[in-house]
What does this fold into?
Amino acid sequence: MDKRTEDIIAMLTRLGRYSRLFNSITDPIPQSFLFELLFANTLETNGVELNYEVNIRPSTKTSVDFVHDNNDGTRLCFELVSPEMSDQLKQGSAPVKTEIEGVSKWSVLLESGHKNPHLRPEAQTIRMQEKILEKVEKFP
It folds into this structure.
């Protein structure tokens, strides 16, 4: 684990609201949990207090990733969707170094007329829509 990730975990630990997230982390940290750590760190360091894994539909057993309850009664719910690259997209592309250990960044060119249907923007748009629609049931 790199120093920046350790610093983020230390800061979030002091807040006392992320034990469920920390209990899910293994070494190496899975990409999805790094995404959640970075999201929480960014909002918390900018004064937005979050709660992690909150069930906002009591009739279900599902939860959203983060909830921010504003003093005026407004509730903001965040369900993160990581647009991770599929194996089909990774073929022929190379990872790009990032400043955080364990975070992968890939680059690929999508073209409407590409012979590989996975390398068409339309296919990737549909894939993202499917990932988002999987999350809808978590919301009232």
About this structure: The chain has a mean pLDDT of 85. The chain has five helices and five strands. Residues 31-45 form the longest helix (15 residues). The beta strands are 51-54, 64-69, 75-78, 95-96, 105-106.
